[in-house]
Write a structure and sequence with these properties.
The complex is a heterodimer of chains A (267) and B (342). Chain A is α/β, with parallel strands linked by helices. Chain A has six helices and ten strands; from the N terminus they run ααβαββββββαβααββ. In chain A, the strands form two sheets. Chain A has a seven-stranded mixed β-sheet. In chain A, strands 4-5-6 form a three-stranded antiparallel β-sheet, with no helix packed on it. In chain A, helix 1 runs antiparallel to helix 2 (20-33) and helix 3 runs parallel beside helix 5. Chain A is globular. Chain B is mainly beta. Chain B contains four helices and 24 strands. The longest helix of chain B has 14 residues, at 144-157. Chain B is globular and about 55 Å long. Chain B starts with 8 loop residues before the first strand and ends with a strand. The chains are: A alpha/beta (267), B mainly beta (342). The interface between A and B is large, with 73 and 63 residues. Strand 10 of chain A pairs antiparallel with strand 10 of chain B, so a sheet runs across the interface. Chain A: Residues 251-267 have a biased composition (Polar residues). Chain A: It holds the Pfam family DUF6345.
Amino acid sequence: MSSYLLKHSSRSLGIKTGLLAPVALACAVAASSSYAAKELLAEHIEDYSASPSSNLPGCDHTTDGLFNEFGDAGGWGRTRWSDNNAWEQDFKSDHLAGGDDGDWSDDADFSYFCGHGNVGLVEFTTNNPGTIFTSTEGRWGDRDVEWVTFDTSMTFRDTGNNVATWYSNGLNRLHLLIGWHDSPLDGDTGGQFADELIDWGFFDGGGDTMKDAWFSGSGGCTDQNGGTTQMIIAEVKSHYNDHLWGEGSVGSDQPNNGTGWKWSHNC
Amino acid sequence: MTYRSSSKLRLAVLTTIVQASASTATLAQAGTLPSMPVFRTSNLGVVTPHFELATSLPQVPVQLPLMATFVSDDPTADLRDVAGRLGLDDKLMRNGKGKLATRTRAGTDDQQTLTGFDSSGGFFYRYDHRLHAVPEEQPRLPEAEKAFVIATEYLLKHGLLPDDALAKPDLVSFHQPMLSEFEAKSGRILQSFATSIEVRYPQQWGDLPVTGPGSKLYVALGDGGDVVGVTRMWRSARPTNVMLKTVPAEEAFRQLKVGSHLSMPVGCATAKIEQFQLAYWSESPKESQRTSLPLYQIQGQCVSETGEGLGGFMGYAPAVHAGDFKLNDAPREADDVDDEEG
């Protein structure tokens, strides 16, 4: 357990989210002790000033919204990394050199990243271990995670091969891989998604299934143009009916059987 | 259509701008180009493609008016009204995050939810277990022509069709969400379901189309042609006396090569521009918006060096010198109290 503290103590010194650093460290420790706890990993990059890509203030805002919504729900251990502290290694399979998903994105139940993407890739800003995360480098579910969201442009563009590659490599008992075929505007996507996922003890319009919350006109689509295409990749069809833990039913883990599902929807 | 005109309207703009006559029109300060919407698209490894124009550039007037956008005086009351029209309980719960919601027949197969935004009155209504239901077999969906008739009659019956929606069969568009099973090794599609058919209504202010997250109206039809969802994120607008000097389309096209407002798939060698049009911008339904500017909206298809199709690209370019006005100019405290009878 101490390895978590040592490994990430340098990252915590540079964390931009200030007050969230202790939360991140506390949750990292908690996450290592049990899979039974409900865990969120939320990462975003706003500052792309060292890249040819533009800055994304909307990612900062929407990841705040998502993080806070899970906090309001109660019972969630939450880890948050931002900008230079959001690393590729957190999503890259620990079966590959430099990957550490087993301690981060695959150690949570719900993992979320907001930043830049392109067809088959996600852009990070530091070499930990690299700046480009690709469709062959994810392998989730062998540890814990059920749902991974990349709130990034075109990462899951349906060119045929691209979605199949994400599926073949990424879904290893993962339930859903959630994101975009098209390019989202830098708006409030994750926060609205989470708002529709979570119903706080009394009816407030939340408690949707994953796909309903992502496809919702008052959820993942709120800040998007009509016609912007979303994509959700699944192992089995029934996983599209998954709720967030504590909000309703969740399907059982399923091994990768070589045939997957994809659901496209226009905002 | 009486839905909006029956309400007291609040212009989210300075009274002086709206009430001044055209003869006292003012020209916004030239030289300032507004910021454009940003996509979450990585430009790493993206090189400027060769642009091919597959459409003509639009003829653009020397000046265009700044639009004053407006919504109902009381969006919350209007959302209650919508709930009543749709047969839902009009006691809307406020979630403290700018949304209101109500639900009926909870726990049954007919459960319905209405969620709205108190900034704009935009709403999303659905049959919770029928919109995006996971199908076992292909739902029986109506053909496009029939879908248009069903959707339009539904909107009219419930008083939900705005005046500035273009509700004509040749102007609406149709979309079918697709759920497909595929074999990963070959990429072969094993089975596929169109899970609904959506009728989408465009919006127009003056002679120009409207784009942005605040301009969405569509009706989703499910099995048997039943209406299973309505999305209406909408605000209206009227021209102000403030005129904005336009950027010629040829100049905007030249500026595209800078590429800063484009979302381009990596590997795009040739970008074939299929649409290059002026449109007014309507901001997110969760935001208040005071004024709207026109911009150029560009869309097309990308092809790799080897001729492989890479899918669509899109982008925006400034269409006017906007002075102090911004694309998403929200009201200031003192500005949003100007009532006017509709």
